[in-house]
Amino acid sequence: MANTEIKICGLSTPETVDAAVDAGATHVGLVHYEPSPRHLSLEQAAALRRRVPQHVKVVLLLVSMEAMPTAQALEAVKPDVVQFHGAETPEWLALVKNNTAFEVWKAVGVRNEESLRYALTFKDAVDKVLYDAAAGALPGGNGLALDWSLLAAARHDIPWGLAGGLTPGNVAEAIRATGAPLVDASTGLETAPGVKDVELIRAFCRATRA
Questions:
Q1: With contact defined as beta carbons under 8 Å apart, do 125 and 104 qualify?
Q2: How confident is the model at residue 139 (pLDDT cuts 50, 70, 90)?
Q3: Which pLDDT score, from 0 to 100, does residue 135 have?
Q4: Which distant-in-sequence residues (6+ apart) come within 8 Å of 33 by Cβ?
Q5: d(CA 44, CA 54)
Q6: Domains and CATH numbers, the chain
Q7: Which residue has better confidence, 109 or 135?
Q8: pTM of whole model > 0.85?
Q9: Are 13 and 196 in contact (CB under 8 A)?
Q10: Which DSSP symbol is given to 50?
Q11: pLDDT at 2 > cutoff 80
Q12: Percentage with pLDDT > 90 across the chain
């Protein structure tokens, strides 16, 4: 689908940020979570954020952070979107959504239909749900795919996007199978953990647009 939004997540260098923007990504993701191989300090994330033109949204990914560090991270990086990827409650995310200017996303690992019912508990608390593969060694960025047929049959009461194991080779099929309005890739665009490949970023954006 030509109008499918594209998020390239876990970017960590000026070259890969520029490549994502040039290739037509609508969103670029920066990870502030120390266990991740894609982790950026707030200073690094802020520097990359300044490279991104206004027409592309910057997403800051946080995992189960307390209120004060969350506020500090948002103040330092000033993203357009904050994506929560941990054990955050709907009540906490509603507070962020209703008391800040940031768009709020919640990543939900999908194992089964019960996971989709759980996602609905965030209906009034977030602007978008990101359906990801169920957590492995990390909350996300494990390169695992989810069962697309679960999403094809689901009723989507919240704006949503698809993540989890997407690559240049399978993204077109994923969009056809699910009708995803947004696709999000990270591990599938790497040559090593945390090392994005410029050519894979370009290929992913081409495959999505095609």
A1: yes
A2: low
A3: 65
A4: 39, 61, 62, 63, 85, 139
A5: 19
A6: 5-209 (3.20.20.70)
A7: 109
A8: yes
A9: yes
A10: T
A11: no
A12: 85
202-to-2, 112, 139, 165, 196 alpha-carbon distances in Å: 15, 32, 26, 17, 11
Task: Give the DSSP letter of residue 39.
Answer: B
Strand extents, DSSP E, the chain? 5-8, 27-31, 57-62, 81-84, 103-110, 128-133, 160-162, 182-185, 190-192, 195-196
Per the DSSP assignment, residues forming a β-bridge with 190 are: 196
C-alpha–C-alpha distance, residues 106 and 109, integer Å = 10
Please give the structure tokens belonging to residue 140: 């996300």
In the three-class reduction of DSSP (H, G, I as helix; E, B as strand; rest coil), residue 133 is classed as strand
Residues ≥6 apart with Cβ < 8 Å to 190: 10, 196, 197, 200
Measured distance CA(23)–CA(134) in Å, rounded: 29
Confidence of residue 92 (pLDDT cuts 50, 70, 90): very high
Report how far residue 109's alpha carbon sits from residue 144's, in angstroms, rounded to the nearest whole number.
10
Give, in order, the Cα–Cα distances in Å from 49 to each of 10, 11, 17, 103, 154.
Answer: 13, 10, 9, 16, 34
> Which residues touch 103 (CB under 8 Å, ≥6 apart)?
57, 80, 81, 82, 127, 128
**Looking up tokens 């499918």, which residue turns up?**
4
User: Interior CA angle at 131 toward 129 and 136, to 5°?
Assistant: 130
d(CA 6, CA 24): 8
**Residue 29 bridge partners (DSSP):** 59
The token pair that represents 101 in the structure block: 């200017």
> What does 121-159 look like in DSSP terms, one character per residue?
GGTTT-SEEEEEEPPSSSSS-S-----HHHHHT----S-
